[in-house]
Amino acid sequence: MDVFVEIIPGTHARQLRVVEGNRETRFHALWLRERSPDAETLDPRTGQRLIEAAALPQDLALTGAACDGETVDLTFSDGHRARFPWRDLHPAPPAGAIHEHWDASLAIMPSADFSQALERDDALSEMLEGLERYGFVKVSGVPLTLDGMMPLVERLGPLRRTNWGGIADVKSIADAYDLTMTQRGLEPHTDNPYRDPIPGYIWLHCLSNADSGGDSTLTDGFMAAKRLRRDDPDAFDCLTRTSTRFRYVDDDAHLESEGPLIELDPRGKVIRVRYNNRTERIPPLPPEQLERYYAARRAFFALITAPELTLTPKLAPGEMLIMDNYRLLHGRTAFRLSQGVRHLRQGYVDRDTTASRRLTLRRQAGISLHSLEESA
């Protein structure tokens, strides 16, 4: 396909237009100059910038532009010449997130086999892509040992340590210091919103479960936010604009953080939900503002607890849930024990190491975002 480039008139030669078929893209001269793919501008090995971009002339302009279909040749007013491979200016869409919002009608839960994900890169990649798409994945065949999850954790990166250590026990005990250690049901929540940064992924490994109750509850927070935005836009707006606080204090820790229950990126896309009734401490805002906030929070709570949005899997010994703590709300039904102990082990893994492993495996396999979107 023919490619056409020109310096756009009336822009003081600071903009370049590139046309391929019916697609047109505009580039700023400084944006092009600071990305010039030569050894003077970018380190050939690392791709990191060698020049100080902020020191380039603010009035830098283009003095020449040509394209032979394979490369775009540019000259700049500072005398620099650059040759861009055409595809560098016409890249595939960025390797962004592909989120499939779901409700209780989800027929097949994303799943993985522990041994296969541990031994095979393609199985690990499939597990991580499922985790990214749905916000959770159920892993089977996890060794029934206290640190059974660790070999797979180490395939991704370090375990996130907290004031409770590395992997913590979740089981009913006398004189419980946290409600997770009782037999009561737990409302849908995200973990540790009082931390900064908030842990990215929860790994919950079952060693033994209750004979009655103790089912996990899973709700897609992004789906709940989507429905709130559709059905009650005023409530949605309130929860994205009101910053609430979360607090956890015991003899050895004092943790506080804040943020909205529904967090948006600059483009208005939902990127995180926070909800933790046990630790939320809304500031003493003006009563009129609190009135609006309480109504909005109630509307959101009605969605995240709605049966039509909730999955209720029960973990068997040797099964594990990996959950996106920025998206998924999890809880459990109350349980009774006639014998034995309901014993789960829980750890956290950060988002950056998880995303890095997923994207590296995707690149090594030559998987494009386009192909993933087609399979969605």
Automatic annotation (TrEMBL):
<dbReference type="InterPro" id="IPR038492">
    <property type="entry name" value="GBBH-like_N_sf"/>
</dbReference>
<dbReference type="Pfam" id="PF02668">
    <property type="entry name" value="TauD"/>
</dbReference>
<feature type="domain" description="TauD/TfdA-like">
    <location>
        <begin position="111"/>
        <end position="348"/>
    </location>
</feature>
<keyword id="KW-0560">Oxidoreductase</keyword>
<protein>
    <recommendedName>
        <fullName>trimethyllysine dioxygenase</fullName>
        <ecNumber>1.14.11.8</ecNumber>
    </recommendedName>
</protein>
<dbReference type="InterPro" id="IPR003819">
    <property type="entry name" value="TauD/TfdA-like"/>
</dbReference>
<dbReference type="InterPro" id="IPR042098">
    <property type="entry name" value="TauD-like_sf"/>
</dbReference>
<comment type="similarity">
    <text>Belongs to the gamma-BBH/TMLD family.</text>
</comment>
<dbReference type="InterPro" id="IPR050411">
    <property type="entry name" value="AlphaKG_dependent_hydroxylases"/>
</dbReference>
<keyword id="KW-0223">Dioxygenase</keyword>
<dbReference type="Pfam" id="PF06155">
    <property type="entry name" value="GBBH-like_N"/>
</dbReference>
<comment type="function">
    <text>Converts trimethyllysine (TML) into hydroxytrimethyllysine (HTML).</text>
</comment>
<feature type="domain" description="Gamma-butyrobetaine hydroxylase-like N-terminal">
    <location>
        <begin position="21"/>
        <end position="89"/>
    </location>
</feature>
<dbReference type="InterPro" id="IPR010376">
    <property type="entry name" value="GBBH-like_N"/>
</dbReference>
<dbReference type="GO" id="GO:0051213">
    <property type="term" value="F:dioxygenase activity"/>
</dbReference>
<keyword id="KW-0408">Iron</keyword>
<keyword id="KW-0479">Metal-binding</keyword>
